[in-house]
């Protein structure tokens, strides 16, 4: 429980934004801060809003607030249409573009690649832990059901092996 | 309007049973999907006290309303404008994204030209005075305040509109954004909205004239009382364009005509003017105000490149009539680079320079 809480408060940036106070003030040792996002020069990018011909302005009421950002030196184009807000879309597009440009420049050393790698490791570790847990459970189950079988052996098989439900079993062990 | 191909309707239906409804207004699958997502998010947000069944019914009702052409912003009740959240109700024009871009540009110009570090040198004891004509939801004054208030210790922004519904909504938006924490508390005193008719400026008893009374420059060179900035997004659609299908059906049916088309009956005194077009009516009146008040920066939204060029010319003609204002620099600024999309006419007046009037085009 404690570990869970702490993880929540240190790992995800969204959780950090919440006014919750974490239990520990020190950072997780394994959580090295990611390198800062690449800052793109304003002169290097072109931002374009609402493409298309035909009338605009008061004559029509567009709900499409797509923003397209182009990084001129590399030619990377990023488009965002996630929200109704143009300024929000612009922020998102700029961030995506910065990540992409960085990835192109630094490859595996880039922030996005590091983040993906970290995520992959975490996932692998979770999978490993869960595998280990179920393996242990399986072993324990094997031992206990064996003992139970032995005990009732003399009286004959009344319930059979399937009697204790799997779910119940797990709860009991805990 | 071309028919939607059956194939597209089937494709939309396979994606979501509600999509064909939205397709009627959105016309493309992509935008229909986006709108469905926003509507769904809204339905889930308001469900709090109700059952999931209720939110499903609500979503369906909203999709049906949208298929009839009711603007998405009236259904959802708001529209993002910069970092602000502007409430939208029937009877008041929905803020457009081009207006947002123009407002950002205007804020940049004000910071460059009028702030102390920009060399414009505004007296410390005097607030920066901005007037927004035809303010509608109040989006422009509120966004300008949020962008400028960190740089100016004193600032006064007045929004003027002929519609009392709009004035009420604008005040509501001011309170709403302060409550949401999107605007500083200063906005409650710095930004105010008043009822007035731009076309009645010449009439000395009109409400608008009272607003300008304390702004008006006395004939002496003491220009300290002058209004610094006028920004406006007046009605600029011609009666022909309103009828001939250029203006979308949804806008015609659900948004107020008052905010879109200048009144034909008020244009009679100007009919003798050369190249006069009814859709430019408001710009003649605004140019007269600029000339009278010695406004240092004016930003006017126009419907197209053609209109912007016409407005630039008419402003030049009006400003040239007075020697004090003949030094104005008039330029045209494009929002998207497309000729049929809005353009802004920028008029800058340097108060010392009395050179000949220049027309500049970017």
From TrEMBL, chain A:
Keywords: Mitochondrion, Transit peptide. Pfam families: RF-1. Its main location: mitochondrion. Gene3D superfamilies: 3.30.160.20. The keyword Mitochondrion applies. Residues 150-174 have a biased composition (Basic and acidic residues). It is found in: Mitochondrion. Residues 120-134 have a biased composition (Basic residues). InterPro entries: Mito_Transl_Release_Factor, Pep_chain_release_fac_I, Pep_chain_release_fac_I_sf. Residues 113-174 are annotated as: Disordered. It comes from the Eukaryota. Residues 39-135 form the Prokaryotic-type class I peptide chain release factors domain. Belongs to the prokaryotic/mitochondrial release factor family. This is RF-1 domain-containing protein. It comes from Aspergillus pseudoustus.
From TrEMBL, chain B:
GO terms for molecular function: methyltransferase activity. Keywords: Methyltransferase, Transferase. The keyword Transferase applies. GO terms for biological process: methylation. InterPro entries: DNA_methylase_N6_adenine_CS, N5-glutamine_MTase, SAM-dependent_MTases_sf. This is S-adenosyl-L-methionine-dependent methyltransferase. The lineage of its organism: Eukaryota, Fungi, Dikarya, Ascomycota, Pezizomycotina.
């Amino acid at each position: 429980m404690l570990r869970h809480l702490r993880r929540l408060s240190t790992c995800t940036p969204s959780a950090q934004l919440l006014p919750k106070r974490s239990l520990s003030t020190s950072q997780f040792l394994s959580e090295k801060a990611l390198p800062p996002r690449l800052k793109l020069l304003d002169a290097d990018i072109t931002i374009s809003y609402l493409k298309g011909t035909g009338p605009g302005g008061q004559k029509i009421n567009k709900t499409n607030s797509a923003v397209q950002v182009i990084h001129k030196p590399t030619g990377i184009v990023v488009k965002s249409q996630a929200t109704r807000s143009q300024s929000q879309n612009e922020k998102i597009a700029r961030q995506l573009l910065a990540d992409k440009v960085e990835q192109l420049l630094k490859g595996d050393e880039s922030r996005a690649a590091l983040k993906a790698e970290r995520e992959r490791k975490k996932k692998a570790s979770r999978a490993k832990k869960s595998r280990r847990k179920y393996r242990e459970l399986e072993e324990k189950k094997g031992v206990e059901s064996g003992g139970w079988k032995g005990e009732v052996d003399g009286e004959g098989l009344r319930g059979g092996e399937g009697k204790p439900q799997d779910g119940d079993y797990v709860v009991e062990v805990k | 309007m071309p028919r939607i191909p059956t194939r597209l309707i089937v494709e939309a239906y396979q994606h979501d049973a509600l999509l064909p409804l939205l397709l009627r207004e959105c016309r493309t699958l992509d935008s229909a999907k986006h709108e469905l997502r926003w509507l769904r998010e809204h339905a889930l947000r308001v469900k709090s006290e109700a059952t999931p069944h209720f939110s499903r019914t609500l979503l369906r009702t909203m999709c049906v309303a949208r298929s009839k052409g009711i603007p998405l912003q009236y259904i959802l009740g708001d529209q993002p404008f910069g970092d602000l959240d502007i409430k939208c109700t029937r009877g008041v024009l929905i803020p457009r994204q081009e207006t947002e871009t123009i407002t950002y540009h205007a804020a940049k110009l004000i910071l460059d030209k009028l702030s102390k570090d920009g060399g414009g040198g505004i007296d410390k004891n005097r607030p920066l005075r901005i007037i927004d004509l035809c303010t509608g939801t109040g989006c422009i004054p509120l966004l300008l305040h949020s962008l400028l208030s960190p740089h100016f210790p004193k600032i006064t922004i007045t929004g003027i509109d002929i519609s009392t519904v709009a004035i009420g909504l604008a005040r509501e938006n001011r309170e709403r954004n302060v409550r949401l924490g999107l605007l500083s508390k200063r906005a409650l005193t710095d930004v105010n909205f008043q009822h007035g008719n731009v076309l009645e400026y010449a009439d000395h008893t009109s409400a608008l004239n009272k607003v300008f009374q304390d702004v008006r420059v006395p004939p002496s060179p003491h220009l300290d009382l002058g209004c610094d900035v006028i920004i406006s997004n007046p009605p600029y659609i011609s009666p022909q364009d309103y009828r001939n299908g250029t203006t979308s059906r949804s806008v015609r049916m659900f948004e107020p005509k008052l905010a879109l088309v200048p009144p034909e009956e008020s244009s009679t005194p100007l009919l003798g003017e050369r190249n006069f077009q009814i859709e430019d009516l408001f710009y003649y009146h605004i140019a007269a105000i600029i000339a009278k008040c010695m406004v240092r920066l004016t930003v006017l939204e126009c419907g197209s490149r053609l209109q912007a060029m016409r407005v630039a010319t008419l402003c030049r003609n009006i400003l040239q009539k007075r020697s004090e204002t003949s030094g104005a620099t008039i330029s045209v600024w494009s929002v998207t680079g497309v000729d049929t999309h809005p353009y802004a006419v920028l008029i800058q007046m340097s108060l010392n320079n009395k050179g000949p009037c220049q027309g500049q085009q970017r």
